[in-house]
């Protein structure tokens, strides 16, 4: 690529609105330009990197047996009504109406779309397991879009969905994706860890986040200094153990409030949900006192309150009988009986999640006869929300350390939540209809690009790992007005491209200082400078990462750079 009319506008100064290094460098090196808050264009150089990452993801997905497809961004509201997420997803879901006044959403994720496709077209157990994926723009109206493409409102995601006959199958499909993710992030040269994530709000099954260790990360990871233990500190203390159950335990249903702000709203929401037996609710409340009223119209077996940011500010105002079951440290509340009320007042709570499991007479969607200890098991890892650095690791090995992490990927065992809601069943080998068992798996492709820059830069600019570099070589004639320099550079440009190197050719009539500064900013792995010794056929090679420089005769160049 000739740089002269290439759209790669560089900035000398640090843009004032860019707080983190990757955002600053993506703007300065001309990889992206902002359109509006959380919405970015990728300029040619940025797109090249995005595509490199995309291709690594694609290769590893294909290798793991996943099939690529492409789904629409526009999704009808009916689909989201069917899954229950039209209400539940909240203000992050970007909604609009068409000219006929019909409601739609711009897809933040595609469980609904994929599940209906598979529902309609996959009927027999013979077709399963099946994993499908796409690489596609996602839309989320984030409350705080920030750090450039690290948290955008429009961003590129790879999302995959697995469909299995049973939970054992899901375990295998999940492991395949987990391994593929490990390969993807290794190839992107990232220092990452797969950490146990909070599965509470989604139904209490295995889930891992892939975290790039970085101090600009918005999540905190607790990990052991002498074992593999690593978890997001928002992890819940209890996880469902399906194996231990005598009768098959069903999925926990999740209901999230759409960003309710006032006490009135919350109470209203709860009283609506009551009739359907409450399972889980999420309130995002901006530093206002919250009143959470949990009331079962069937027997409430368990109410779990998570995520109060200051346990001491939580007061339970229900009757004495219930109170004795309350453990304010873990937020676990034992059986509260029929029609009991639990009021929790949390001052300045930011996020409160309530999990209620109901003994049911509305079969299907509820847990039946839940027995904590049998159906629920206190996880190997305990509640991490109050854990401190230096505490003994919950797995008994070493002590806990903290690190910030950027979530670049997330794998999740969904179970039958969506297949049941949307009726995706298959006929088993006995001809009996059963819901498919699903998993979902996301990678933030555009976020990964920024995470790579967070990890690979120095004071002069980006230092691309070879695997994702937009070009391999930056070829720079110091002075294009000198015939010998220009001619040798042109010849090398042809020759290197023939050898399948991706070359950025700085054919601009700029001062050497400008060219070298831009070269450092762009951060291509090798810089080849054609200068004064061009007439002798000698060029200078600089390794961006180490700063090493060599003089090489053009004839030995290829041997050297391989
Ligand atoms: P976060 O906790 O950062 O909000 P998430 O848990 O909501 O992310 P998922 O629903 O797990 O995100 O989506 C899968 C992946 O998509 C994430 O692991 C992340 O890499 C990426 N992603 C999510 N939200 C954004 C965003 N706003 N901008 C860029 N990438 C994102
Ligand atoms: Mg999010
Ligand atoms: Mg997350
Ligand atoms: Mg996630």
Automatic annotation (TrEMBL):
Reactions catalysed: tRNA(Pro) + L-proline + ATP = L-prolyl-tRNA(Pro) + AMP + diphosphate
Localization per record: Cytoplasm
SUPFAM superfamilies: Class II aaRS ABD-related (SSF52954), Class II aaRS and biotin synthetases (SSF55681), YbaK/ProRS associated domain (SSF55826)
Gene3D superfamilies xrefs: Anticodon-binding domain, Bira Bifunctional Protein, Domain 2
Family: Belongs to the class-II aminoacyl-tRNA synthetase family. ProS type 1 subfamily.
Species, as recorded: Salipaludibacillus keqinensis
Protein name (database record): Proline--tRNA ligase
UniProt superkingdom: Bacteria
A GO-annotated cellular component: cytosol
Gene: proS
Task of the protein: Catalyzes the attachment of proline to tRNA(Pro) in a two-step reaction: proline is first activated by ATP to form Pro-AMP and then transferred to the acceptor end of tRNA(Pro). As ProRS can inadvertently accommodate and process non-cognate amino acids such as alanine and cysteine, to avoid such errors it has two additional distinct editing activities against alanine. One activity is designated as 'pretransfer' editing and involves the tRNA(Pro)-independent hydrolysis of activated Ala-AMP.
GO molecular function: aminoacyl-tRNA deacylase activity; ATP binding; catalytic activity, acting on a protein; proline-tRNA ligase activity; transferase activity
Gene Ontology BP terms: prolyl-tRNA aminoacylation
Taxonomic placement: Bacteria, Bacillati, Bacillota, Bacilli, Bacillales
Matches recorded under PANTHER family: MITOCHONDRIAL RIBOSOME PROTEIN L39/PROLYL-TRNA LIGASE FAMILY MEMBER, PROLINE--TRNA LIGASE
Oligomeric form and interacting partners: Homodimer.
A Pfam family matched in the record: HGTP_anticodon
Domain notes for this protein: Consists of three domains: the N-terminal catalytic domain, the editing domain and the C-terminal anticodon-binding domain.
Major localization listed first in the record, in broad terms: cytoplasm
């Amino acid at each position: 690529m000739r740089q002269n009319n290439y759209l790669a506008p560089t900035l000398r100064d640090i843009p004032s609105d860019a707080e983190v290094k990757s955002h600053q460098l993506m703007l300065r090196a001309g990889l992206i330009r902002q359109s509006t808050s959380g919405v970015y264009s990728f300029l040619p150089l940025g797109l090249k990197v995005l595509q490199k990452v995309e291709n690594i993801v694609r290769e590893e997905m294909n290798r793991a047996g996943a099939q690529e497809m492409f789904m629409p961004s526009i999704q009808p509201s009916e689909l989201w009504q069917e899954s229950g997420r039209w209400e539940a997803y909240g203000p992050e879901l970007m909604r609009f109406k068409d000219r006929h006044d019909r409601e739609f959403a711009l897809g933040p994720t595609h469980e609904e779309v994929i599940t209906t496709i598979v529902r309609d077209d996959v009927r027999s157990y013979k077709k399963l397991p099946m994993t499908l994926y796409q690489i596609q723009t996602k839309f989320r109206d984030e409350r705080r879009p920030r750090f450039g493409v690290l948290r955008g409102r429009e961003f590129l995601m790879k999302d995959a969905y697995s469909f299995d006959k049973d939970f054992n199958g899901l375990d295998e499909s999940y492991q395949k994706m987990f391994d593929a993710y490990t390969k993807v992030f290794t190839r992107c040269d990232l220092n990452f860890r797969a950490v146990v994530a909070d599965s509470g709000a989604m139904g209490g099954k295995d889930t891992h986040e892939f975290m790039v260790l970085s101090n600009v990360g918005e999540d905190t990871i607790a990990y052991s200094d002498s074992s593999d233990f690593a978890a997001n500190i928002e992890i819940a203390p209890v996880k469902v153990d399906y194996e231990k159950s005598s009768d098959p335990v069903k999925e926990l249903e999740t209901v999230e409030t759409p960003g309710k702000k006032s006490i009135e709203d919350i109470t209203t929401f709860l009283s609506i949900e009551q009739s359907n037996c409450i399972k889980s609710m999420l309130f995002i409340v901006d530093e206002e006192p919250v009143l959470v009223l949990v009331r079962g119209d069937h027997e409430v077996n368990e109410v779990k309150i998570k995520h109060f940011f200051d346990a001491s500010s939580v007061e339970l105002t229900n009757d004495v009988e219930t109170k004795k079951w309350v453990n304010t440290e873990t937020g676990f509340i034992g059986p509260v009986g029929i029609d009991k009320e639990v009021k929790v007042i949390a001052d300045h709570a930011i996020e409160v999640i309530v999990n209620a499991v109901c003994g049911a007479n509305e079969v299907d969607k509820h847990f039946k006869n839940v027995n904590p200890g049998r159906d629920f098991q206190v996880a190997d890892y305990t509640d991490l929300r109050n854990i401190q650095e230096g505490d003994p690791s919950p797995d008994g090995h070493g002590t806990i350390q903290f690190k910030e992490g950027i979530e670049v990927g997330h794998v999740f065992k969904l179970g039958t939540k969506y297949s049941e809601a949307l009726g995706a069943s298959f006929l088993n080998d006995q001809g009996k209809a059963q819901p498919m068992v699903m998993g979902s798996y996301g990678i933030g492709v555009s976020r990964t690009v920024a995470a790579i820059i967070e990890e690979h830069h120095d004071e002069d600019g980006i230092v691309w790992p070879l695997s994702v570099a937009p070009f391999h070589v930056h070829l720079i004639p110091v002075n294009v007005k000198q015939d010998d320099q220009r001619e040798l550079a042109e010849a090398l440009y042809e020759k290197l491209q023939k050898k399948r190197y991706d070359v950025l050719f700085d054919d601009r009539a700029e001062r050497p200082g400008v060219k070298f500064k831009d070269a450092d900013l762009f951060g291509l792995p090798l810089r080849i400078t054609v200068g004064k010794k061009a007439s002798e056929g000698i060029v200078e090679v600089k390794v961006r990462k180490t700063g090493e420089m060599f003089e090489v005769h053009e004839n030995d160049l290829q041997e050297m750079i391989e």
